[in-house]
Batch of 2 targets.
Target 1
Amino acid sequence: MNETYPYPYSATEARKRNELSLWWESHKANIACRNAIEDAIRQNFDGMNLQTDCLKTVLDEYGFKRTAWVLANTLHELKWDGRFSYANKHWAEKIYIPTDLIHNSDFVVRSHPAVLDGFVSFYRKAVRALNLFGAEHCVGDRAEQDYTGKVLVLSPDTLKESCWSQENQLWYAHDGFGCSPHTIGRSVRCTCLGDGEMTRWNRHEFIGVLDEKYLPDWAREKLMELTAPQQEAPATGEMKLE
């Protein structure tokens, strides 16, 4: 798989950050991903139907994150086109693409919009099949919530795609300044409910607090282990006889 870092800022911002080389490598990968999408559509569209496995070669080479970036950018640039469905346009709107009037057009997919719309739908279906947790599985206003003692959902954007699973998304928050919504500190000390790893994440890397009704049985069992009161060890030493 192409592991080039998906640079999240515009060329202008990259220049300010002295990271223009990172932006350029990512931009070239975006263009290559666009080309791969066009090739996949060309090879899998028979004039009437788009084959459902047309995504595979693109995802194998560029992964979900970059493919989403290229598809969302395309729909942003072509939002005036009525041949894209409302659902796909709404999906694209939720993905932030930095404004870059000079370069964003470089990786707009040039396939027929009606066929490309089907490709976007296939992509969204493939993401849903991963069964990842999202904002729709969370409760409350994360901007005002105290995370202490809560089960949090880690954003897939924070994880490598090889780690995209529910087991790697659910974390129990112990403490840290980041648990409070109004402190300067952002760090949250937490334990992964999947494998028991304890580490620190920043508050913004979590989507929010998981709604209890979506908590899987395996996670519930692990949560009970983490939150169960510790049994006191029996006292040692000589027993005094009366």
Target 2
Amino acid sequence: MTKPYVKQTIENEVGYIEFFHPAHNSLPGDILAKLANTITEAGQNDAIKVIVLKSGGDRTFCAGASFKELININDAATGKVFFSGFANVINAMRKCPKFIIGRIQGKTVGGGVGLAASTDYCMGTKFAAIKLSELNIGIGPFVVGPAIERKMGLSAMSQIAIDANSFYPAEWAKEKGLFTQVYETTEELDEAVKATAEHLCTYNTEAMLEMKKVFWTGTDDWDALLAERAQTSGRLVLSEFTKEKLKGFK
């Protein structure tokens, strides 16, 4: 079985950041920390003009946070640290001075939808259905909520947060503004991502930086906001309801 990883490659001034975990790309804390650091470093690397965020494997872009770690949370402090994992990646993407293109090849759940929503330009395949399943286990998409609401609007975010059992098709996500384009195959997606990223590299870096600031206007409080949201999730995950629910996954 392939081991989890985060790796970066640079090709034609595009920094490709890829993460992988054999459990459907569900991400434990150490991989999330590495992902946040890799994005921050890519933002500071002069050899990179545009960043592409992608995951390994073909079926699932990201299944959210690691259930294995979630089940083992026994106190609020550990819970807050656990839920801060995705918060730190979202904030790294928000603060990154370069455009980040999302390449979403398959299903994405929970925190994975937050990652897709935090890219500046996101493209998917028709297999890239999305789901926010957090309410199923007695918590909610608190940490990723602001990123999803910012990209898709409160109405769409509320709908998928409440309807926690359903996958919403990629075309629906495109209609709501998450995806710019939806492709038939991963090959077509990869061609389009490469072409878009390399074309962006021909633009004025300073102009793109200033545009990025404009896109993220009104999010300066997210360091504090997402930490607060992580605390809420960390508290709820200790509830009897959630503990009972999680027993079913052991």
